Amino acid sequence: MSIKTLFLLMLAPLVLVTLLPSKASAIPVFARKYGFECTMCHSTYPRLNDFGQRFRMNGYQLPGMETLEKDITETSVPVAIRTSAGYNNDNFDSTQTSNVDVNEFQVNGVDILAGGLIGPDIGFMFVYPPEINSSRGVAGQNGAIESANVIFSNLGSTWFNIRAGKFEPAYVAFSNKRHLSISPYEIYDFTFPGGPAFSDNQVGVEFTGWGRDGFRYAFGILDGSETNGSDTAPSDYYVRAAYVFGPGEGQTAGQRIGVTGYFGQAKPLASWQETDMSEQSFDRWGVDASFNVEQWNLALQYLRSNDSSELWNFSGNVPYSGGFAEVTYTPTIKFAGFTRYDWVNASSILGDITRWTVGGRYYIEDNMALHLEWSRRNESDLSGSDINETLWTARLDFAI
Amino acid sequence: MRRLVLLMIVLVGLALMLQQPKLLAQGQFMANTLMPPVPIPADNPQTDAKIRLGAQLYFDTRLSADSTISCATCHDPRTGWANHGKTDTGIAGQVGGRNSGTIINSAYMRYQFWDGRAPSLEAQALGPIHNPIEMGETLENVVVKLNAIPGYVEQFQEVFGTDVTTDGIAKAIASFERTIISGPSPYDLHLMGDDSQWTSAAERGRDLFNGKAHCSTCHSGPMFSDQSFHNLGVGFDGENPNSGRFNETNDPADFGRFKTPTLRNIALTYPYLHTGSEQTLMDVVDFYNRGGIQNDNLDLLMFPLALTQQEKEDLVAFMESLTGTIPEVPIPTFPEGPGLPADPGGGLR
Fold first, then answer.
1. Full residue range of the structural domain in which residue A328 is found
2. A369 CA to chain B: closest CA distance, Å?
3. Are A34 and B10 in contact (CB < 8 Å)?
4. How confident is the model at residue B26 (pLDDT cuts 50, 70, 90)?
5. I need a labelling partner for A55 at 20 to 30 A (CA). Which of B164, B173, B187, B336 fits?
6. Do A36 and B291 make contact, defined as CB atoms within 8 angstroms?
7. Residue B86 pLDDT > 50, yes or no?
8. Nearest by CB to A253, which of B25, B27, B306?
9. In the predicted model, is pLDDT for residue B241 greater than 50?
10. Given an 8 Å threshold on Cβ–Cβ distance, is A40 in contact with B302?
């Protein structure tokens, strides 16, 4: 399919939205199921509010209303599509090479989502980005399943829930999939060559529990094979504990603090490390906090890593650390503004990364946002060279 | 292949778009519906004679011990078929513990009373008569008193084929209550396509109600009630909070839970909550915006909402748009009999 055709087709729903009379705000899976606005679960989509967070924790059931729930055979088609399109200006300016300026109008990512209940206390979530070859105007994506998991909730009490399949593990305190910015959380993406990004969805089993006292736990076993370059599936383990002060989940109400530990095994990337191909260990330790005052949220993450030297082809263990501090202001359901400082301190291996991001989203409709963002990233490596990337983007993000 | 997949996506997308309003309206929790016909129980069909009899009993003060109080004393037609006292004042000036619910549309509610202790209007109707602080009479005595009034005996014979019985009293009053139904509100008119009384504030409020403020999770369906019970912490800031639904079920999970009341005509029936502790709709919205009142059994849907002043006002505007036309019922003339006379004013204060 030519880019032009694809683009026009992506645009068609938009045109329809503006043409359709009355309030035809298009609403994805869950909202459609219940007849809710997106803002029921999202402070400003895709960010979850406390209601949405509890809905997710409760296995895609409204907390306290499990007996009223209907399964997918009794509700509307549980399918939604999410995409965004817009203008990017990406400028790379390095001390070593000459300035590169990329200007493009792009369709970025198409996700097909499905979710709902298979039966009482059995929820599922499915996210599939179909394969798209990158070409001018269309960002490529491979067709792997991003999420496909089943959650068995309230096994005896809210203290016991099991999620299995491919999912976003609970140790990711601030979802990389549901944050407002286009620019990523740097520390979540930083890893040894061929390793799993901290925030990647993984295949495994996760046990979670939560109570009215504010305590939340999660632990899980992951088959780390997909992302760490081994076919023998070394298993990774993780634990997380969090506590919320005051009513809420710390998303937009209540104050949350959390600690996370991740213990992984991986084989070095063959092209990187030729001598020792045995399994090596790596671990990550994190603390995080999310504070809320009125319409303001402050999100803090600090993560420390310790990778065995073979994974980096270095001598001695390789520690690095980093984090971010993000402020989000949501004065109305129509607008959200955010700014974030990201840093990665990996001076013993690669160098340091810092990033500043400022952006805002204006919601034309419940399910359609105009996104404006500026982000500047600096990477200084050991050789002393500096790469600066400045990203400007303006796009339309919508879900149907 | 790739082309096909993409084409499929786009087609599914378009189909979803076009189906949107329909799919949305079918949403399980959407409060977006008109009121269905009044449910009538099979063992108590509506008849004109029964409704007329029920109206007389409803306004007749002789159902109380000292002939001063009728149902209408507390459920006054002039004040939204409820009253504006924080809690109610019954016989001999005794003050009860709960704010009176409205009679309007009570026919649609699965449970009666804040704790749902009566499963039907019939089961409810006798309660106040022998409640010592409401009408303070015994049921035996009411039956004796009414059987001494020829006008009532005649009507009971006509309607039920018996003398006055407690069962008949309950059924007649319930039948009358089933006629106290509000007419279309600005919101209903909006749903029917008439926007003459619909405002943009109400529209924004509706979206908040059904979104950020998540009111419609509990206040769902045509009556804006899930016909269930929740703990908002009402009364938990004082001593000895009422245990609510727990009184009925003895289930610890029900501690402090109360019935989700209808929000139709809510602007008329202040003060609010079972304690009558909130005076205005804005006060109630503030209560929710604070996340209710903390307690061990607080509903999981209660937490601060971070609503702005504008958003609060919009929510109030939406609730105000739920006021329909209220039936006006003239105070009936009462059959005469021995003993204390009926208050010709129907017990209204």
1. 3-399
2. 16
3. no
4. low
5. B187
6. no
7. yes
8. B306
9. yes
10. no
Lowest mean pLDDT across A40-49, B60-69, B313-322: A40-49
- Among chain B residues, the shortest Cα distance to A43 is held by B212
Please check the confidence at residue A19 and state whether its pLDDT lies above 50. no
Distances (CA, A) of B259 to A360, B274, B315: 41, 9, 21
B30 contacts in A (CB within 8 Å)? Answer: 34-36
Q: What is the CATH number of domain B2-30+184-320?
A: 1.10.760.10
Q: Which amino acid is present at A297?
A: N
B48-177 has the same fold as B2-30+184-320: yes
Q: How many domains does chain A have?
A: 1
CATH code, A135: 2.40.160.10
ipTM metric: 0.85
The CATH architecture annotation of domain B48-177 reads Orthogonal Bundle (1.10)
Instruction: Using an 8 Å CB-CB cutoff, list chain B residues near A290.
Output: none
A348-353: long-range pairs with CB below 8 Å, 24+: A348/A314, A348/A318, A348/A319, A348/A320, A349/A312, A349/A314, A349/A318, A349/A320, A349/A382, A350/A381, A350/A382, A351/A379, A351/A380, A351/A381, A351/A382, A352/A379, A352/A380, A353/A186, A353/A190, A353/A322, A353/A377, A353/A378, A353/A379
**Contact between A83 and A108 (Cβ < 8 Å):** yes
The structural domains of chain B, with segments of one domain joined by +, span 2-30+184-320, 48-177
**A5, A8, A19, A40: best mutation site toward chain B, by most B Cβ within 10 Å?**
A40
CA distance linking residue B87 with residue B74, whole number of Å? 10
Instruction: Say whether B212 and A49 touch across the interface (CB within 8 A).
Output: yes
